[in-house]
Every structure is written in C-alpha cells, then in structure tokens.
Amino acid sequence: MNSHTKTEENTYEIISNFESTDEKLQTKALMIELGAAVLGINWLLITIPNVEIISFSIFFIGYLFRTKFALVTSLVIIFSWEVLASLTFGLGLLVFPLKVIGWLLFLIAGHLSYKFKVEKAYEFLIIGAFFTLIWDMVVTLGTSLFFITTPLEFISVYLTTFIFGINFTIIHVVANSYLFATLPYIERTVLPVVQINYDYLLQSRGVNK
Quick one: pLDDT at residue 89? Predict the structure, then answer.
C-alpha cells in the first residue's frame, strides 16, 4: 500500500514538473511572438513621424496580463526597439532612460486601468491622450538636458524644444488616442484566443470579461 502511494506521488510530481516546463515554454513563446509583432509593425510605421504602436502595445499588455509577464515582455520590447532604432539612427540611446520611464508609465496605467475596471472606448482615449502627452514631455525633458550649459537655461530650452516639436506631439497624441479608443474591440477579439493557451498569464484567470 505504501509502495503504491509512493508511486502515485512520484507520478504526480513528474506530471506536475512536465506541466510547469510546458507553461514556461509557452510563456517564452508568447513573449517572443508579442515582441516580434510589435517591433515588426512599429518598423513599418517608422517613416510616419511620431506614429508608433509601442505605447499602445505596452499599455495593452499591462491591461491584459499579470504583472511579472507584462513587465518582462514590455522591457524586452523596449530594449529591443531602442537597440534597433539606435543602430538605424544612432541617436536613440541619448534619451533612452527617460523613454523607459515613459513607457513603463503606460504599463502601470494599463495595469491600473484593469484594476479600476476601465472598459469604455472614450475612457481609453482620454488615458491614451494624457499619457502620450506625458511621454512626449518626459522625452523632451531628456532632449533639453543635452543642450543646456547652466541650470538657469533649462526652462527656456525645455519650452523652446517643446514648442518647436508641438506639431509632432499633436500627431503622436491624436494617433495614440485613436489606437487606445480601439482597445475594447481588440480585447474582445484577442482575449478568447489568448485564454485557450495562456489563461494562466491573464490578470483574471479563467474569467472572460
């Protein structure tokens, strides 16, 4: 009897370990798929000034997935994109730390939007517009720091830089606002598919909103 029980325990342990390994492989696969999709689409949009999907994608990942997976996937996307952009244009790393901060704000906003049950298109539109403006202001802050010689010049340089780039900021805010407004429709399409294989990664496992 004891031998039989021990055999069952060993069998259960083997199955559990196999399932755990399978989930880890699935998690890595999904991370790679998301990263490749975001980078690929963003690269196609690179010729259009200030139109990008990284901000929206990171927000959506934060909204849909649990904290650890969302954070790691977002960092993979951010670092991969900045390396790609730097190799192409040679200037991306100058404001990279502030870009990371700005994009992580989108991740936090996405996570909190889920927690506070944000669901309507106009709510996402407002959130997208607000955080896109914040992102542009943060990145402009970093750009300005490279052109000041004294602390007293900072405000003048910052405002001048922001004003000269206001057209690009408007494009960025409008484009992201539209993207964010589509989130409820994208979620309804994506969520059932994700639940089939990656239910354990979702914020509410097994619950279809």
Answer: 61
Lookup: tokens for 98: 């502030």
For residues 94 and 139, the answer to whether their CB atoms sit within 8 Å is no
pLDDT tens for each residue of 106-133: 999 999 999 999 999 999 999 999 999 9
203 touches 66 (CB < 8 A)? yes
Given this model, what pLDDT does residue 126 score?
98
pLDDT digits 0-9 by tens, 65-92: 999 999 999 999 999 998 887 666 655 5
Interacting residues of 78 by C-beta distance below 8 A, sequence separation 6+: 54, 58, 99, 100, 103
Residue type at 161 in one-letter notation: T
Phi, psi (rounded to 5 degrees) for 202: -75, 155
> Rg for the chain (alpha carbons), in Å?
21
DSSP labels, 12-24: HHHHHHHHHHHHH
pLDDT at 146 over 80: no
Chain segment 133-143, per-residue pLDDT in tens: 999 998 888 76
* Block residue for tokens 């200037």: 91
Q: How far apart are CA 183 and CA 201, in angstroms?
A: 19
Query: Strand, coil or helix: what is 163?
Result: helix
DSSP letter at 1? -
Closest CA to 112 of 99, 130, 89: 130
